[in-house]
Amino acid sequence: MACEQEEARGRRNGALGVVPPPIGRWALKLTRRRFIQGSAAAGAAIAGSGFLFGGLDSIVRSPAAKSQLPFVEDFIPTMCWVGKQDCGMMARRIDGRVVKFEGLAGNPRNAGTLCPKGQAQIGAIYDPNRVKTPLIRTNPKGTTGRWREVSWNEALALTAEKVNEVRARSPKMVLWQKGRSKAEKFYDDAFVNAIGSSKLGHGAYCSDAGYRALEYTIGLHGVQHPDMRSTNYLLAWGWNITNAGGNKFCWITWPQQLVAARERGMKVVHIDPRLRSAGPFADTWLPIKPGTDLALALALCQQLIEMGYLDRPYLTTYTNAPHLVGDDGLILRLPGEGDEMVEAVWDPASAGPVRAGSIESPALEGTFEHAGGSCRTAFEVFKAHVVGYTPEWAADITGIAAGDIRTIARDFGDHAMIGSTMVVDGIEIPYRPVSIMSYHMAQQELGFQALRAMTIVTMLVGAVGAVGGVMSDFTWKIHKNYEPFGDLRVDDPPYDFTLKNSKFFPINTGFPGMVAKVMADPGRYGVEEIPEVAILHMVNPMASFPDRKQIMEGYDKFKFVAVISPWLSETADYYADVVLPSATIEKYEGPINASDGYIDATALRIPPMEPLFESRGEIDIYLDLTEAIGTLFGEGGYLDEINKGLTLEGEFALPLYVKPTVREIFDRWARSQGLEGVSYFEEHGVQVKGPIAADKRYGYAVDPPFGGALHRLYGESLLVAQRTMRDKGAEEIYWQDYTALPTWRQLTFDRSPPEYDLTLISYKQIEHKQSRTSFVPLLAELSPGSRVDINPSTAAARAIGHGDPVWVESQNAITGETRRIESVAAITSSIRPDTVGMPHHFGLWTHPVNRGQGASPNEIFYTGEGYMGQTADQSFHVKVRVYPARGEG
Amino acid sequence: MAKYAMAVDLDRCQGCRACMEACKIENNTVQSVFWMYVFRLESGEYPDTKMSFLPRPCQHCDNAPCVKVCPVGARYKRQDGLVLTDFERCIGCRYCELACPYGVNYFNWTKPERRQYLDFDDPGIAAVTGGVLPPYQNPDLAVKHGEEQRLTAGGGHFKGVMEKCTFCVHRVEKGLQPACVATCPVGALVFGDVEDESGEVARMLRDRAHFRLLEEAGTRPSVMYFGGAPPTGDSKEIETVKARV
User: What is the Cα–Cα distance from A221 to B87, expressed in whole angstroms?
Assistant: First the structure.
């Protein structure tokens, strides 16, 4: 293990040119505690020159000079708390006080470095505006809260009482909602199972339409991501490159791999209405019109087919492209074993249909007569489907010149090197060094089908699961959604409040905005019961999610809300009955995947200090809360569920009737992993397990190939679902995109009146993470507030200057509603003239640092018909007009 | 003796500004002061827009104008290349600030602990920090450095003195990288002995073209830029921070 860490470091040092000793990184020395003999600072007691400028305070040394030496310096390995990928950190402590975080060299994800958020979180930990004690509300909800500081016992007892009141009737009407979960086994699984509640995540605002598209199409849980060590040509779709990054990553891993790939010569085609995210890393910028990505992907498919860039063996063997589709759009089936019906392919030898899988070379193309009707291969259907999606057609829609689309298609096809192979770990694997990066761009009206079409672009050239091609997860695991997506349920009402298996969303991400809409008007959606109690875990829907108005209408219905958060979130401010103060980094938490996609590693968050104020780690809170609820002990209790989640068995299993400390739980888990105990992580921070083998990574190389999941070029079950939805009376806006093949249609937001002549998009900045950093003063200084990126020509036409206050007014094309917020113009040539962009991190109000930061676009997006995708996913596009705010109000 | 220099690889820099944050925390600088500053630049007209990033620490010039104008010898150039300020000797005349063409000097107008980011005097925080300000105060800054044993690290110590990037003299003397270099996620900042032929800085100088900022000023900076191109009059700064630049 140590040797592998050395290897990882060696690569980084070599690749990134870190200077060799004597200038080394202290982080390499994992000495747990060492004493530094400071060298004298007992100098003069009076500052040399301050007398020129003021009173006594200017001539008396500040505390900086008062440090008593020697001091005790030590280093505690831990993990970043702010971001998503939990980078490894070393906390430098002086006399037990944390003074700095630096990157942990051995963690594959960040290799000894930190981003601005990782550095700045030290200011968040020591923030005097954290929630210091549990709070109970003393005024009515729906407005700024007033609070009574209470003991943990009182807060937990009240929460348990309210939870139990509902549990006794209907456990699912207790809703556990998370934004980010950093110990899913303890929270999403064990706690939720122990109390039997419903749960809800944040994916509908992140990239879940993409997750659903890839689960559906190739069976993987993730969106498209390059095999960065080998990709030579990347279609970088969306705002990720220097601002966020990489499927399942937060940032550092992605840019490290990106710069290494660039130095290898990887080309980047940046497809985004803004140039900003790729910046100097774009070889080509295609400033696409927002929401039209599906049209571009379809044109690329049309071109690849026209130019003949097709991996026929892959399409024939691993996809349903050769499966026969009848005139009714359904796949032809033949009797198999017993009652089973098996999808049919065309056997050229016998000139008839045979069961798929029974012959090696079925026809990939062709129209055939059978049983008095005609049928075509799915690939033939697809070819006919995209034949009209020409570059000229797409140019009108996307704003990208037809010539550019042709060039990109040809370059993509050329770089794919169809037919080539490469030997990795002794296995010969198809080599297709072209890929697509699509993280964070799926949340648009046609997101699911756009991501389906983008996946098909890579399928045509055989790049899925190939070396240099499309990755989606760290290993090639088939997700549990793949199989049921082949036969979508469309039940009769009543539906549950998430509308799962409903005629509205047969594929359903679990969408808090839609849940809020249902809660406000359950009858409209055939829902009988709505949740009564919410437990909010590291989530702030009022600030983080569009649309705020809709979210509030839903939250008004909760009878009791408990918020677990280090800060008084905006949602807590308006809706919490109880606030339970959680610790930031000062807690044990995990286990957390520390893989960079190539090296397997696991890490734990180790507390570098005691929890500040009266805060507690979330696992501590759940141990106490389940004890108060009465579901800590015994079978099915929280401890039992932790045993199941962490696979603690035999001697490692937690006794079911003894309340453990969190450290004890992790000690058992670490021992169950063959380590000496949690002390391993307290010493090293991370367990590096070694490279991920080719036969785990590459779809072609796993056994069976692609995990045995046939790739769905043709989405028959989508068409079947559409027919059932229509039969059950769903409106067109719900069923229109349930088509077997990705199909372009006019976007709803484009139907707004012409005076709403700009499209608003929102984006992430590297200085911030969602809504949990804009109050960190060090980060608020780097990125001070809301702004509207606007093209110079657009600004000039409206007499708007850089820095001018402006109104941004949105219009809902379905309801006619308008909303407006004030922000500040930021004139930039890095955005389309018909598009404006805003960062989504601001618009908070409970923390003093948030004052004056300006509004969030989440206030003027809409949730609801036309502004969400077919999979219950939020769209982040809306038409707006922008005009000067000077002289008003 | 080593001769320290910094190589900035503009082909790698992502403009993330982690270096700016690492510097602030390491050196305990106060609000709006950035010893390391990363420019985000844009040039050209849509759709032929170009973007670039440019980190700018003190250039630690070999022919440093700030040293020449200091009337009391507080600003001085060390043999190892570092340009430092002796805070006990500085009289706050600000001549260095005027002489420097790079704008990297910051004057301490008020008592530094009054310009921290939050009210860290909170009793709950004081209980674990012993009341030091900021709570992440780095004790190394109060230590005298170099053969000359002068108080040069940090800089936020006194009202009425000038401060700027020290190349993290307190780290360099411990054998560590400057804070900005250590945190850079993409290895865009490289620090080391320019005279060590086997070192990375010397290797980059051998293998790649570079430029220095305002070479025409004759300041002979110790900071060299690889890749990219010097900013021009066409370059426009975007995404400015709340800084005294």
Answer: 57
The answer to whether A832 faces chain B, any CB pair under 8 Å, is yes
Q: Is any Cβ of chain A less than 8 angstroms from the Cβ of B160?
A: yes
A 163-202 residues with CB below 8 A of B?
none
Selected residues 724-783 of chain A with any CB under 8 Å from a CB in chain B:
766-767, 777-783
Residue window 4-33, chain A: list those with CB within 8 Å of chain B.
12, 15-27
pLDDT 10s digits, A651-663: 999 999 999 999 9
Distance CA A771, CA A242 (A): 19
Give the model confidence (pLDDT) of B203-225 as tens digits.
Answer: 999 999 999 999 999 999 999 99
Residue of A nearest to B184 (CA): A113
A256 at B interface, C-beta within 8 A: yes
Report how far residue A598's alpha carbon sits from residue A693's, in angstroms, rounded to the nearest whole number.
Answer: 8
Average pLDDT, chain A: 92
Alpha-carbon torsion, ordered A123, A128, A130, A133, to 10 deg: 140
Does the pLDDT value for residue A2 go beyond 70?
no
- Give just the sign of the alpha carbon dihedral A178, A179, A185, A187: negative
Ranges of H-type helices in A218-278:
253-264
Q: Can you give the pLDDT at residue A845?
A: 96
Q: Is B126 on the interface with A (CB under 8 A)?
A: no
Contact A248, A473 (CB under 8 A): yes
Test A242 with B14 for CB contact under 8 angstroms.
yes
A830: its two tokens = 């890095």
A328: CB partners within 8 A, 6+ apart = none
What was the ipTM of the complex prediction?
0.97
The pLDDT of residue A59 is 42
Q: Which of B64, B50, B156, B53 is nearest to B110 (CA)?
A: B156
In the predicted model, what is the mean pLDDT of residues A226-244? Answer: 93
Work out the percent of chain A whose per-residue pLDDT is above 90: 89
With a cut of 60, say whether residue A762 has pLDDT above it.
yes
Test B238 with A830 for CB contact under 8 angstroms: yes
Residue B64 contacts A where some CB pair is shorter than 8 Å: no
- Tell me the pTM: 0.93
